[in-house]
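ok so for the tutorial part 2 we go from a plain amino acid sequence to predicted structure tokens. step 1 is just haveing the sequence, like this:
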Amino acid sequence: MKKVQIFLLLFVITTQQAISQSLGELIIGKTLTDYSSKTVRAYLKQGEVLSSLMLYASALSHAQDTRNAGRGVSGELIAEYAYALALHHDFEAALMNIDRARMVGTKYADFYSAQVLTLMGYEDAAQQLMKQAKVPEWIDGVYQGLNEKYKTKTSINNDAPSDALKRANKLAANHQTIQAIALFEELKQRYSDTYIVYIDNSALWETLGHYAYASQLLQKGISLMPQELAENKQVFEHHLTKVNDLKLKFENASWLKQLLGMNPPKMMTYIGASAAKDMYSLNSRLGFYTSNKFSASLNIGINYYNEEFSGSIGASVYKAWGIFVGGIGLTDMFNKESSTLNLSPSIGLSFLNKAQTSSFDITITGYIPFSSEQKFSYSISLGKTIYFDFNGLLK
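step 2 — the prediction. this is what the tokens look like for a chain of 395 residues:
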């Protein structure tokens, strides 16, 4: 019983510290209070764009220097910074940062992407992204007025048409999605009678799962094709039929399938080793994650104890605050003769690499048996988690 109490006390203390650190490092937290009692968001809502931009830049610089206590820079912070840059008409920087935010991960990615495109005058593309976008509460009802005030027409392209088209396709291939969309939108405006602009742009929206808009662009491109390209036209017409079929399937699909189609889940896998009193284990996890901060997984392990092998299987969820990680799960430990179901709380540290594709993890996991005949135990684990994008496999 004493071991259980000590473990639970450590769990509570670590969780409190994690939450405290997380709150302290939010955009509106300690990084900004050195400059003003107003928050950066308040400056932005009041239209004080330059002041908010300076604070966002400072917060982002601080987060990059400290790498947000090992967990990487917040995708939401980068997205808000991109929006502030767009309001200040620094559009190239805004586009690069909004693509960076999308790669890092934030649930408001489509919203902020749409606002950047709106401010550049590309409302067709912005409206498509807003169809599935979640609007942050802090700016709901305000962003419309800001966009109306700061919206402009701009150009980000100085290349020849063929070079610009190659660059747009290269950006799309490299998942620099919003930069590609902005360049395609500019090419549409400049070369509105050039069929290949619409066809290549259609391919980008198709990969994003916006089949209706992809179909619309593809139809426009086909209608602009010259007669001497009749054979190529048939190929594109055949593909248009496929895109329209995808559009109908998507429109008639369940809300869950639509969600997965627009924003496919990302995945994680973990492998590590753990040690407890007289027991050693190899463990693995496979599951889904959101922005490297929340994960849910199925777990399996092989244990060696008292010169015998046994197994474990279970499920768990984890949440990270800075470098601190906490989780809870169910674990069934079994051998040839018996099986024990345990509640498995975990605490630990997770150090995300600079590319935010993997982390090194140190965790302490407790095993609280549901059976009164079994005793509490715990183990210390070292392992590596790899995060990867499942997008290509679902499309």
